[in-house]
Amino acid sequence: MPYPDPAAPLFAALGLAGTGVPVLPLRAGKVPFGNCPACARNACGGRASMKTHGPCSCPHPCHGWAAATTDPAVIGSPAWRPAWRAAAAIAYHPGGAGLTVVDLDHADAITWARAHLPVTRTVRTTRGEHWLYRGTMQSANGVRNGVDIKSTMAYARWLGPGTGTLTALPDTVRGLAERKPSAARPVSVAVPAAGAGGCCPHRSPAYLERGITMAEQTITAAPSAVHTTVYRTFLAVLSAHGRCGCLTDHHVTRLFTAAQSKGESARHCADAWANARARLGV
């Protein structure tokens, strides 16, 4: 629910940004505010990437972690004020602050961390603890039962500075994100129906096979901006094959498997597929 004093989150965010921590407002449910009109229905191609495009250039805080900023002129701008007035919490981009957060979601996860990870600064959460380390790495969810890693291309809820001394990011934590990817979870998505007469204009099945293979390689090789890469790859596949009826569930599963090997969830895959279909009208 919103803060009792509507001005409180804005002032708190400005103070936090002044220490070098990039901030953004969260609405109820600990999620970012929805896309601004210019970016609705993924018109911008998905989330911005600080590595490839720089911080989000939209006037509204609509791109999750990429919208986080330390610029007081942006944070206090008229475009952001409605979001701060309705904010239920403040979030920050750990990677942008040079930090990695090990999010421990329950007591068993905390017990495991105490046995296997170096002691560091700790922040109490509603259900568990955040362990903060100095240094950045790739974010990853579900590295263990009840354990998520939030650093680059992720946001975490700001719950206070915590207690204890920051420890350098250990190899133990880095190794958690380098585990062998689990098998892709199946998900039901709509495959475009055949076009007029069900005729495929492609000369041979080899053309489709090459297209799917190249799409898999594009996703797997993405060094950053995975969300954007997945969406654009789905868009390219559907542009070439979405109207002739040659795509099958098997092809879609291959694409989703490649995306999930890079850390995408089944839901993100389904959303990206649906958005690409909606954009092309297939």
What does this 3D model show about the protein?
- With 282 residues, the chain is of the alpha+beta class.
- Helices cover 34% and strands 14% of the residues.
- It has 9 helices and 10 strands.
- The protein has helices spanning 8-17, 72-75, 81-86, 107-116, 171-176, 205-220, 226-241, 249-261, 266-280; strands spanning 23-27, 31-32, 89-92, 99-104, 121-124, 129-134, 140-144, 147-150, 156-157, 167-168.
- The strands form 2 sheets. Strands 4, 5, 6, 7, 8 and 10 form a 6-stranded mixed β-sheet that branches. It has a 4-stranded antiparallel β-sheet with strand order 2-1-3-9.
- Helix 6 runs antiparallel to helix 7 and helix 7 packs across helix 9.
- The two termini are 39 Å apart.
CA-to-CA gap between the ends?
39 Å
Instruction: Provide the residue-averaged pLDDT.
Output: 82
Main beta sheet? 6 strands, mixed
- Tell me the fraction of residues in β-strands, as a range: 5-15%
| Radius of gyration (Å) | 21 Å
Query: Which structural class best describes the helix and strand composition?
Result: alpha+beta
Residues in helix, %: 25-40%
Shape annotation: globular
* Helical stretch tally: 9
Order of H and E elements: HEEHHEEHEEEEEEHHHHH
- Taking pLDDT < 50 over at least 5 consecutive residues as the criterion, the unreliable ranges are 47-54
